[in-house]
C-alpha cells in the first residue's frame, strides 16, 4: 500500500481536526500584528503596482464603444435586462455575466482613459452603479467556487484597475466579499466544515493576499502569503507528490487541471512577492520547478495534455497551456536551478516545431501512471490501485469517463490527437481498457467515488528509457492481469485470466481515435481487406491491422478481433452539461478491439503496436500466464517481466528467478547486465534475484524503497560468482 491515505478517510479525520482546532499552518493575525515599517509600506506599494500591471495585461480593453453600450444599457437599479439573475445552472450561472461585464468590459476601459475626461466619468459612474447592483443581486451560487472564488476574483480585478470608481462603502463591501473565505482559523471556499487543500486552498489564500494588499494590511497579506507558500509542500494528501504527480480531490491525478493552476498561481505570486519580505524561499521555487520538469511535462505531447491528466476538465473546450508557457518563462527568471529547461518547456508548449520532442520513459509510482515518449509519438497509461482514484465527475462534467483509470492507453503525436473527439467516443471502448459491452448507466462517480482500483499490485519498472507496467485489475465486476511492455517505438500489451460474471460480452479495446480514410486488415490465409468508413470486420482469423501509420499485430491466434470505421455525431452535453449549447461534433472514428465472448472465465490477449515504415520488431513472448508475464526484445537484448508470484523465467540469456512478486527489466549490453526492479507491495521489503547464465551465477539481494518511494524502481548491482 502506497504512502497516500484513502481520500474519504483523510477527509473524515480532517473534518474532526477542523472542528476541534484551527489550522496549525495558519498563524493568527496577532503573530504578524505590528506597526507597518517603512519596508512594509514599500513592499505593499510594490505588490499593489505589480498586481495592477498584471491585471491590465491580463484583462485587455475591448474598446470604449463597447463599454459605452454597456453603460447605456444599465438600468437605474444597477442591473442589465439581458441577464437573468435567477434560475441559472450550477457551473456557468448567467448572473456571473454581471460581475464579469464590470471586470472585463468596463474596468479596463476606465483604467486606460485619461483622468478628468468625460468618458472616464461616464464609465466610472456605470461601474459604481453596476457594482451597487451586484451587491443587491449577487447570487449565492450552488457552485461554491463561484461564490467564494470566482465572483470575488472578478471583484479583485475591478478594485485593482478601477477601484477609483467605487465609493468608500462599495470599497469596504468589496473587501468583505474577498475576505468571505477567511474564517479566522482557515482559508476555504465553501460554507461546509471541510478544510481546503491543494489548489483550492491556493485560490482562497490568493484572495486574502490581494485583500491585504488592497487594504494596506501587511499583517493580513503576510499571513496569506505564508499559508499559500505552506501548500508548496511535497507529499501532502493533496498537491505536489514525490513522483511528480499532482493530486486534488483525493489521490487523483490532476497535473493538467488543478496542478496546472497550482503552478501558474504560485509562479504569479512568486514574481509579485519577489524582492519583498514576503518573497518565496529558493527551495519553494525548486519544488515548483520539479513539479513541472520532473512531472507535468511528461504528461504532455508538445502543446497538448494527455486528456486523462486533466481530470474532468478535459471535457471543456478551454485550454490554458499558453498561460502555463508564460508562467514557466517567468519562473526561469527567478532563482531556480534549471532555467534553460524551463525555457525549453515553454517554447515546446508555444510551438512544438521549435523544439525536439521529449524522449524517455517515466513511471509515476504514486499515481499509477506511465508515460513513454519517442520522437514520433508518446504513450500515456493510466491505471488505478487501492490507493488511487481513476477519475471524477462533478459540476455536470465528465459524465461518461467511468473507465478512464482502468488501463487507459493513449497514443499521441503531432498528427494524431484527441482534439474535440470526446463527444464521439464509445466510453466503454477506451484504448487499453477491458470492460463489458452492457449499456447500463455508469455508476455514480461524483468527485471520484467508486473509481479506486481493486488491488495494490499495480506498478512499473523503468530505467528512464524503456519500461514495463502492470495492472492487477479487479473493478466493475471484471478481473484479470494486464501488462504493458514499452521498448523504443514499440508497445506490447498482454492480458490473461480475464473474467466477468456479468451476462454480457467482454472486450479489450486496443485503439479508438480519429479515423483515416481507410484501414487495412490482414487475415491468417494472406487475404487483405481494405476497410473504409462505414465498414467493419469481425473474425478470429485477423492477424494484423494497419491504420494511420501504425501496425497492430495479433500475437495470440485464439482471439477474435473487431475493427470498424464509423461516421459518428455527438453532443457535448452528453459528457459536459454546461456545454449544452456547443455545436455537435461529427467525424470518423476507428476502433480496434479484442472480443472475449460472453461471461468469460479465463480470456487472454497479446497485441503489439509499432509504426509502419520499419521492419516489424522481433518480439518473443516468454509467458502470458496468471503467475508470469514476460517479453524479450532480441534486438535490444531487453527482457521485461512481471512476476505475479515468486518464480523463474527461462530467457535467451539464461534463467532469471526472484523470491517475491515484482516487476523486472533486464538489459544486456556490451557484456554487462543492468536490472531495474520495482515492487508496489508494502509487505515486500527485499527481493532476492538470481541470473544463471554463461556458466555464472549472478545474485543480488535488493532492498526496496519505502514510504513515499514505495514502488519506485531501483537499479540492481549484480555480483558475479563462479558457478
Can you describe this structure?
The protein is globular, with a radius of gyration of 28 Å. The protein is 27% helix and 28% strand. The model is unreliable at 3-24 (pLDDT under 50). The relative contact order is 0.08. By secondary structure, it is of the alpha+beta class. The strands form 7 sheets. Strands 10-11-12-13-22-19-18-15-16 form a 9-stranded antiparallel β-sheet, with no helix packed on it. Strands 23-24-25-28-29-32 form a 6-stranded antiparallel β-sheet, with no helix packed on it. Helix 3 (64-73) crosses helix 5 (118-137) and helix 4 (96-112) runs parallel beside helix 6 (144-162). The two termini are 38 Å apart.
How large is the radius of gyration? Answer: 28 Å
> What does the largest sheet look like?
9 strands, antiparallel
C-alpha geometry: globular
Instruction: Quote the beta fraction.
Output: 25-35%
Query: Kindly state the mean pLDDT as a whole number?
Result: 91
Number of helices: 13
Total strand count, please? 33
The end-to-end span amounts to: 38 Å
Relative helix content: 25-40%
SS content category: alpha+beta
Uncertain ranges: 3-24
Strand order across the biggest sheet?
Answer: 10-11-12-13-22-19-18-15-16
Amino acid at each position: 500500500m502506497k504512502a497516500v491515505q484513502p481520500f474519504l478517510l483523510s477527509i473524515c479525520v480532517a473534518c474532526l481536526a477542523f472542528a476541534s482546532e484551527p489550522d496549525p499552518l495558519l498563524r493568527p493575525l496577532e503573530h504578524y500584528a505590528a506597526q507597518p515599517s517603512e519596508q512594509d509600506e514599500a513592499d505593499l506599494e510594490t505588490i499593489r503596482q505589480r498586481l495592477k500591471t498584471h491585471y491590465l495585461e491580463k484583462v485587455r480593453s475591448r474598446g470604449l464603444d463597447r463599454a459605452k453600450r454597456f453603460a447605456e444599457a444599465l438600468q437605474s437599479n444597477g442591473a442589465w435586462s439581458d441577464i437573468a439573475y435567477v434560475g441559472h445552472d450550477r457551473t456557468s450561472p448567467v448572473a456571473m455575466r454581471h460581475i464579469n461585464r464590470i471586470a472585463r468590459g468596463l474596468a479596463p476601459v476606465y483604467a486606460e482613459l485619461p483622468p478628468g475626461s468625460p468618458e472616464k466619468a461616464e464609465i466610472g459612474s456605470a461601474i459604481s452603479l453596476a457594482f451597487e447592483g451586484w451587491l443587491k443581486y449577487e447570487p449565492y451560487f450552488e457552485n461554491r467556487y463561484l461564490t467564494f472564488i470566482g465572483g470575488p476574483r472578478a471583484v479583485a480585478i475591478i478594485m485593482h484597475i478601477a477601484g477609483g470608481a467605487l465609493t468608500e462603502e462599495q470599497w469596504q463591501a468589496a473587501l468583505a466579499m474577498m475576505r468571505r473565505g477567511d474564517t479566522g482559523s482557515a482559508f476555504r471556499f465553501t460554507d461546509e466544515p471541510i478544510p481546503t487543500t491543494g489548489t483550492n486552498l491556493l485560490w482562497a489564500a490568493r484572495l486574502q493576499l490581494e485583500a491585504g494588499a488592497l487594504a494596506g494590511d501587511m499583517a493580513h497579506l503576510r499571513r496569506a502569503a505564508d499559508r499559500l507558500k505552506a501548500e508548496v509542500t511535497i507529499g501532502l494528501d493533496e498537491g505536489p507528490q514525490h513522483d511528480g504527480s499532482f493530486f486534488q480531490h483525493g489521490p487523483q491525478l490532476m497535473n493538467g487541471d488543478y496542478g496546472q493552476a497550482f503552478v501558474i498561481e504560485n509562479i504569479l505570486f512568486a514574481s509579485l512577492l519577489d524582492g519583498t519580505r514576503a518573497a518565496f524561499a529558493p527551495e519553494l521555487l525548486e519544488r515548483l520547478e520539479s513539479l513541472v520538469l520532473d512531472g507535468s511535462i511528461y504528461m504532455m505531447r508538445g502543446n497538448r495534455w494527455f486528456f486523462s491528466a486533466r481530470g474532468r476538465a478535459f471535457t471543456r473546450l478551454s485550454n490554458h497551456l499558453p498561460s502555463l508557457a508564460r508562467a514557466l518563462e517567468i519562473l526561469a527568471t527567478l532563482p531556480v536551478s534549471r532555467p534553460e529547461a524551463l525555457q525549453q518547456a515553454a517554447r515546446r508548449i508555444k510551438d512544438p516545431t521549435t523544439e525536439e520532442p521529449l524522449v524517455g520513459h517515466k513511471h509515476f509510482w504514486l499515481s499509477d501512471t506511465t508515460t513513454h515518449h519517442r520522437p514520433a509519438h508518446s504513450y500515456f497509461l493510466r491505471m488505478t490501485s487501492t490507493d488511487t482514484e481513476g477519475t471524477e465527475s462533478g459540476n455536470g462534467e465528465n459524465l461518461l469517463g467511468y473507465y478512464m483509470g482502468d488501463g487507459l492507453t493513449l497514443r499521441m503525436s503531432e498528427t494524431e490527437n484527441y482534439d474535440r473527439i470526446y463527444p464521439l467516443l464509445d466510453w466503454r471502448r477506451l484504448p487499453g481498457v477491458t470492460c463489458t459491452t452492457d449499456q447500463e448507466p455508469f455508476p455514480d462517480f461524483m468527485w471520484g467515488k467508486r473509481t479506486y482500483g481493486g488491488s495494490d499490485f499495480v506498478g512499473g519498472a523503468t530505467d528512464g528509457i524503456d519500461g514495463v507496467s502492470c495492472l492487477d485489475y479487479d473493478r466493475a465486476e471484471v478481473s484479470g492481469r494486464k501488462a504493458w511492455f514499452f521498448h523504443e517505438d514499440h508497445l506490447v500489451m498482454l492480458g490473461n485470466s480475464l473474467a466477468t460474471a456479468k451476462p454480457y460480452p467482454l472486450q479489450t479495446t486496443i485503439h479508438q481515435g480519429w479515423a483515416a480514410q481507410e484501414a487495412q486488415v490482414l487475415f491468417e490465409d494472406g487475404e487483405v481487406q481494405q476497410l473504409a468508413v462505414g465498414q467493419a470486420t469481425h473474425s478470429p482469423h485477423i492477424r494484423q491491422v494497419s491504420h494511420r501509420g501504425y501496425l497492430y499485430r495479433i500475437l495470440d491466434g485464439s482471439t477474435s478481433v473487431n475493427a470498424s470505421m464509423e461516421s459518428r455525431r455527438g453532443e457535448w452535453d452528453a459528457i459536459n452539461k454546461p456545454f449544452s449549447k456547443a455545436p455537435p461534433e461529427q467525424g470518423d472514428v476507428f476502433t480496434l478491439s479484442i472480443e472475449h465472448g460472453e461471461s468469460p472465465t479465463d480470456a487472454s490477449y497479446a497485441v503489439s503496436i509499432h509504426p509502419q515504415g520499419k521492419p516489424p520488431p522481433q518480439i518473443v513472448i516468454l509467458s502470458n500466464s496468471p503467475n508470469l508475464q514476460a517479453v524479450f526484445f532480441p534486438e535490444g537484448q531487453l527482457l521485461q517481466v512481471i512476476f505475479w508470484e515468486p518464480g523463474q523465467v527461462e530467457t535467451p540469456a539464461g534463467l532469471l528467478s526472484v523470491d517475491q512478486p515484482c516487476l523486472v527489466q533486464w538489459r544486456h549490453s556490451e557484456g554487462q547486465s543492468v536490472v531495474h526492479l520495482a515492487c508496489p507491495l508494502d509487505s515486500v521489503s527485499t527481493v532476492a534475484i538470481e541470473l544463471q547464465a554463461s556458466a555464472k551465477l549472478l545474485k543480488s539481494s535488493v532492498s526496496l524503497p519505502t514510504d513515499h518511494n514505495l514502488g519506485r524502481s531501483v537499479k540492481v548491482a549484480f555480483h558475479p560468482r563462479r558457478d
